[in-house]
Q: What sequence folds into this?
């Protein structure tokens, strides 16, 4: 595999809506954390009842709530940090049960359209430090999601052997 210049649009490589995990603002962090862990995802969009993107929730957002403060550099270190602080597991679970997604999600959500060129999506992710971008229609409804991994996959192709 050899890296190729990014070509195409966000819509051409996005994960379609029917395969995207999403949350409601009223969902609990415990529900969100459980689903993200089960699917091995690091984040997901937050939708209003009309399927419009109103925010993005990440594992880091959840861990900030669980630890009641700023986190070490990455989420895996945060788990070690929590263990080192001897956080009472029951207290953390109770906090996650009582806290709604809307209180910790990143908002407003930064979104792109399906016709956004891949280089522009990549630039936005790098400049803003995003790991994923929701892709929306003109009404702001979720169409799909693109991640850094999707961009990486799009930049690699198998070259035919000569």
A:
């Amino acid at each position: 595999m050899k890296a190729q210049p990014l070509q195409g649009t966000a819509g051409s490589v996005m994960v379609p809506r029917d395969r995207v995990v999403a949350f409601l603002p009223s969902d609990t962090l415990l529900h969100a954390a459980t689903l993200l862990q089960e699917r091995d995802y690091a984040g997901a969009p937050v939708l209003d009842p009309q399927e419009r993107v109103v925010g993005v929730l990440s594992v880091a957002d959840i861990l900030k709530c669980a630890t009641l403060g700023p986190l070490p550099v990455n989420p895996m270190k945060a788990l070690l940090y929590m263990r080192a602080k001897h956080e009472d597991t029951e207290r953390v679970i109770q906090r996650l049960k009582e806290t709604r997604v809307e209180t910790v999600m990143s908002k407003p959500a930064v979104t792109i359209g399906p016709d956004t060129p891949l280089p522009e999506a990549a630039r936005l992710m790098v400049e803003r430090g995003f790991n994923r971008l929701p892709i929306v229609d003109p009404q702001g409804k979720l169409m799909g999601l693109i991640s850094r991994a999707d961009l990486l996959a799009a930049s690699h192709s198998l070259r035919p052997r000569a």
